[in-house]
Amino acid sequence: MRVLHVEAGKHYYGGARQVAYIIEGLAKRGVENILACAEQAEVAAAIGRSAEIHQLPMHGDLDAGMALRLARLIRSLKPDLVHLHSRRGADLWGAVAARMAGVPCILSRRVDNPEARWLVALKYRLYDHVITISEGIREVLLEEGVTPQKVSCVRSAVDATPYLNAVDPAAFRQEFGLPGNAMVIGMVAQLIQRKGHRYLLEAVQALRHDYPDLRIVLFGQGPLLGELENAVAVSGLSDIVRFAGFRKDLPAWLGGLDILAHPADMEGLGVSLLQASAAAVPIVASRAGGMPEAVLDGVTGLIIPPGDVAALTSALRRLLDDPGLRRRMGEAGRARILNEFSIDAMIAGNLSVYHAVLAQHAPGVRR
What we know:
- By secondary structure, the protein is an alpha/beta fold.
- The protein is 42% helix and 17% strand.
- It has 15 helices and 13 strands.
- The protein has a 7-stranded parallel beta sheet with strand order 3-2-1-4-5-6-7, sandwiched between helices. The chain has a 6-stranded parallel beta sheet with strand order 10-9-8-11-12-13, with helices on both faces.
- Strand 12, helix 12 (291-294) and strand 13 form a beta-alpha-beta unit.
- The two termini are 21 Å apart.
């Protein structure tokens, strides 16, 4: 089987990392992979020799020329299947290109952002099948009119191995400039509006006086950096909040957190939640998108209503006050990741969809 994967993101964030897992896993199973990605995309270096790489100009939703460039590539390389992994124009123009070249096309849907029903009706007929990374996203598509037979859920996975090593608390606090007795809440997310950093900062305002040793470490980069830094300064939280940026060595440090907070308004599943559970860190997350699938409420963490700062504050307070609860939730989270979110299961799920779609396109099969 020969598969062309299309990933338009330039940074090696959670979605791109999932693409690398899929490509590497498929290669081990004898699938011949081709990756079409944006110029200077970090995922190209990450996958090494697991795929033949073609870097193309990819300029987003308005870049109609992407369809022509991808169609030429598809006709030249003759894959059996095209798998679209991201938005930023790749979902629409990649599907148009596949149709132009007469090759079946699959979309991986990684976000739970709602789309207009008229757009769904037009756009989703371009795909032979849609893979969602959570049941929450699948439900969004079904509510918008996509037929159930066209949508399968194959959850994202995480390689737990790098997160299983114990983190030296003293080294962790030294690395991020924290006092030795600090209680540390972390957040791992792009610095964008829907991730909910503002809710965490409000909660910290309410907690800081009762927990003088409380510190916050924000991992990630994004367009809200300046706005968030200003909010921290204006709120008098500069001595409490650390901006750690995007860390390629995150597995070495994530387990040093006492709690991971993820009060996002929307989230497809939340790879950082899976990573935190693998590192045995208890989680507070929102009841939105696929997050309740990543975090079992009362078992591996606490789930709160989206945008509810009072509930976020209360959940964080509950975990801060109870080290035994933090330990039990962390251990339960690690066990669940090892049992339910394996990369092998994700690869098998994707392969199953590939075979089903190709069977529909076999000579003599009436679609």
